[in-house]
Every structure is written in C-alpha cells, then in structure tokens.
Amino acid sequence: MSAALRIAPLVFVAAIVQVTVLGGARVLWAEPDLLLVTIVCVALAAGSIPGAAAGFAGGLLVDVMTLGTLGTTSIVLTLAGYWAGRYGETTGRGRRYAAPLAAFAISIFAGLGAVALHFLLGEPVAARDALVTAVPSAILAAVLALGVSRITGLILEPPRGLERPRQVELV
Fold it and tell me: pTM for the whole thing?
C-alpha cells in the first residue's frame, strides 16, 4: 500500500477531530491543535514533500469545514509539514525527542505565521490572544506529539519482509 493511502486517513481523521471535538476548546490556557501535530509527525516519518502535501490537504479540509478564508490554514500547515519533514530528513529521523521538539517549535511558528497572514489579508485578528496562548499551546502540542508519533510510526512503517529489493543480481 502506498504512503499516500496510509497518510490520507490520518489527516482526514485529525481534521475532523480538530474541527468537531477540539474546535474552540482550551486546556489550561492552551488550544490543542491535533491536526498540526499529526502533520508534523507524518512529515517526520514520511519526509518533506509528503508532509507538505498532507499539510495542504489538512488545511484545505479545515478551511472548508469551518468556512474560513480559503487557503490560510493550508499555507500555514503546508509550511509546517515541509519544515518538519526537512528536520526529519536532516537530523531528526530516528530520534526519540524529534516529534515533541518539532511540534513545540513549529506550533509557535505556525501560530505566529497565522497571525501575520491574517493581518496581511486585512482580517481582524487578536495578536494578544495568540501570543498569550503560544507557549502553553506549544507545550500541549509537544505532549500530544508523544502519542501521535507512535501511532503514525505504526501506520506509516512499511511491513517487514515486504520491502522491495534495491538491486537484482543477474546470473
């Protein structure tokens, strides 16, 4: 089964849960962002291009479901998926702390990027609220990443014994 067929249900379920269950929820001054954490974990496991594609698809789903400005969440999550994928390709792959660290840092940058994007589009945005919740939300994202990274690792890891040979020997 291809990676896209394993990534798509993860992103779809995370987007649905983000909008329906976690939309507007606050846990100790933090706003949980399951979709962002899922995108980061997928990008760490699959790479930068699948991470960016998953971020775009997940962001587009959220924008359509919430009737928000089409493309704003997609831009932010595309960049988040790409950055997480590059981190995973360069230094983070196989390290236990990679998912919480990437989720923490990218959560802060994605929150600030979303505020800046809404400001540039001329939409009303409360920067103070975003800045107050940035660090608690990033800590919550790091905690969520511990569980989500295990789930994505189990789903995206290729089955053992079914790997394709890299070279064929001619006799």
Answer: 0.83
